[in-house]
Write a structure and sequence with these properties.
- The strands form 10 sheets. The protein has a 5-stranded mixed β-sheet, with no helix packed on it.
- Strand 7 and strand 8 form a beta hairpin.
- It has 1 helix and 36 strands.
- It has a domain of 186 residues: YVTN repeat-like/Quinoprotein amine dehydrogenase (Methylamine Dehydrogenase, Chain H), CATH 2.130.10.
- 43% of the residues are buried.
- It is globular, with a radius of gyration of 22 Å.
- The longest helix has 4 residues.
- It is mostly beta strands and 448 residues long.
Length: 448
């Protein structure tokens, strides 16, 4: 006999003389997968991380996910630690992984900044003591952690409201971290609202110049429980910033598009071109000339309120794939192979969630696309392989250049629904009664 454990446990019969077995009631994803990370030095080494369900490493043999954050393990509230705001890979060592752990930056509990040297099997807490908010609004933005491709001891971490922190020796101890000389944001009010916006939405260490770091400051307002409206940065102070001393001092990049006050993602081509998505469009930036090229809904001839996941092909620096963002319908995918001179839509099909009833307006479509990545392991020679994560799941395609590309679900053993109640109905011989009904935040009830 199996017992189901959530926030409550209900069984219609209990016989202490029987032998009981505890096991997982599998549903399959159903929550926000914030990001994906593919390692360039090892085939099929892929990670994902979630807002309330921990982080996972992909098992390519079984096409399933392995939970690598088996908390409680460190200081702070155990439930608090299941929020993973970001996950970063050491580009020079496939065994090393970093995560920032903590669900809320406004509940008086500091988060944990953690390092693993065995692909997430074990973790060590580093010396950065800041608030982390993996389950706040606009949590899809990033990256928030950067490991320098030039020196893996140079680590830069962006926080919600405590600025940017840098270490040059790996950050093992508290004294190893230096706070950047960045204009301060409006501070958070502890024990206020979970619905707060990041003051810093993304950071990036330049792939070519080891001294250059970029940061994206936000003017997006949020409202506290008492009705107070807070703006992290004034609009004239928000936007794209650049550091030329590895993150210590900063200046605002001139002549930038207005959308960069509300950035979603930032990435870079190996040739140096910076790509940024935001809530009204996306753009590319040439660091050599200082020139921006702006793209928006009108440019692509579509209706959308913004763009989210964006990735540069490791096989071709001129190839970029970008996803729309901002509506609850199926997201659209666009690709350029000439660094933005022309764009073509990838019209795709997809596998539906195993527990959903698909319809044109169903929320269980590939919606709220938080992140995407190519298979970055070049020796594997899989230029058509593309992954993306959404509000509900992870998707993978191996044929994005075909006439009919298809994305399959990769959700086995990703379990991150917030279970609020359980009910085991009494058996009825004349009726087909399910053994378990579960109730969850956001997505309602499930019959098992």
């Amino acid at each position: 006999m199996k017992l189901s454990v959530g926030l409550g446990l209900i069984s219609n019969k209990f016989n202490p003389k029987e032998d009981y077995k505890s096991d997982t009631v599998l549903i399959g994803a159903g929550g926000f997968v914030l990001g994906l990370r593919s390692h360039p030095l090892e085939a099929d080494l892929l990670y994902c991380f979630t807002d309330v369900g921990g982080a996972y490493r992909f098992d390519p043999i079984n096409e399933s996910w392995i939970l690598i954050t088996k908390f409680p393990f460190f200081e702070g509230s155990p439930g608090h630690q299941y929020g993973i705001e970001d996950l970063a890979l050491d580009p020079s060592n496939p065994d090393i992984v970093y995560i920032s752990s903590g669900k809320y930056a406004t509940q008086g509990v500091k988060g944990d900044f953690l390092k693993s040297t065995d692909k997430g099997n074990t973790w060590t807490k580093l010396g950065l003591d800041v608030y982390i908010g993996a389950n706040h609004s606009h949590r899809r933005t990033g990256p928030m952690i950067q490991i320098s491709p030039h020196d893996n001891n140079h680590i830069v971490v962006a926080t919600h409201h405590e600025g940017i922190w840098i270490t040059f020796n790996g950050g093992q101890n508290t004294g190893d971290w230096v706070q950047a000389n960045l204009i301060p944001c409006t501070p958070y009010i502890q024990f206020s609202s979970w619905h707060v916006a990041k003051a810093i939405r993304a950071i990036w260490i330049d792939l070519i110049d080891p001294d250059v770091v970029y940061a994206c400051l936000s003017d997006l307002t949020y409202t506290l429980f008492n009705g107070t409206v807070v703006r992290p940065y004034l609009t004239e102070d928000a936007g794209l910033y650049k550091s030329t001393d590895k993150g210590i001092t900063w200046t605002k990049v001139p002549s930038q598009p207005t959308g960069l006050t509300r950035v979603n993602k930032i990435t870079q081509s190996p040739n140096g071109t910076i790509w940024i998505t935001h809530t009204t469009g996306f753009c590319k930036f040439n660091p050599t000339t200082g020139e921006f090229t702006d793209y928006n809904n009108t440019t692509l001839g579509i209706n959308s309120t913004g763009f989210g996941g964006i990735a540069v092909s490791p096989f071709d620096p001129l190839e970029v794939t970008v996803f729309t963002l901002g509506n609850w319908g199926k997201q659209r995918i666009f690709r350029t192979t000439d660094e933005g001179s022309t764009w073509n839509e990838i019209v795709y099909t997809y596998e539906t969630m195993p527990w959903s009833t698909p319809s044109p307006n169903a929320r269980y479509t590939p919606t709220e696309t938080a992140d995407c990545t190519y298979n970055r392991h070049i020796p594997s020679n899989k230029p058509d392989e593309l992954y993306f994560s959404t509000w509900f799941a992870v998707y993978k395609s191996t044929n994005t250049r075909s006439n009919s590309p298809h994305f399959n679900l990769l959700i086995k053993h990703i379990e991150l629904l917030v279970t609020l109640g359980l009910f085991c109905p009494p058996k009825q011989e004349d009726y087909n009664i399910p053994p378990l009904i579960s109730g969850h935040a956001d997505l309602g009830a499930y019959v098992h």
